[in-house]
Amino acid sequence: MRSIERVLSRRSIDLLTQEAYTFIHLYCGSIAHFNLEGWKHTYRDLRDFLNFFLLRNEYGVCLVNPPEFMNLTEENREIILAVVNICQKYRQEIVKEFDQREARVGADIGKKLSSRELSLRELFGRKAEIEELPY
Q1: DSSP letters along 50-94, please?
Q2: Which range of residues forms the domain containing residue 105?
Q3: Maximum Cα–Cα distance across the chain
Q4: How many domains does the chain divide into?
Q5: Residue 18, Cα to own-chain centre: how many angstroms?
């Protein structure tokens, strides 16, 4: 729980610990994504991270009320619900902040395209750079 609180409060998936990753992978309905680094890459946009817990995990299950078929111990269920509460605490401000950042980046790209400072060819040539923008 502390790891996830730190990830959300500091807005950095890089702060996710191995212990938290293992719990998410084993008990929260996530495939391994090869390893911790692969998982961080998949959920680098914290809006996706929040949605994993608040809307649906990778198996289509909402963790706000974990279903019985997940066969969770009471302790694991309580931990998941505590994580859900942490996600709910940060959701509104993170979504707003990330949406605003994304809008600014989009506006900057639009200005550069319209002024011909940037071409579509250059833009699509930089796709990897765009995917790595800090959110």
Answers
A1: HHHHHT--TTS--TTS--GGG---HHHHHHHHHHHHHHHHHHHHH
A2: 2-131
A3: 59
A4: 1
A5: 16
Q: What angle do CA 61, 62, 66 make, to 5 degrees?
A: 90
Residues present in the chain in total = 135
Q: What is the pLDDT of residues 96-112, one digit of tens each?
A: 999 999 999 999 999 99
User: How many degrees, rounded to 5, is the angle at CA 116 between CA 110 and CA 119?
Assistant: 75
User: Residue 75 corresponds to which tokens in the numbers above?
Assistant: 């302790």
* Each residue's pLDDT tens digit, 58-94: 999 999 999 999 999 999 999 999 999 999 999 999 9
Number of helices followed by number of strands (H, E) in the chain:
7, 0
**Contact partners, residue 8, CB within 8 Å, separation at least 6:** 46, 49, 50, 86, 87, 89, 90, 94
CA atoms within 13 A on the CB side of 5: 6
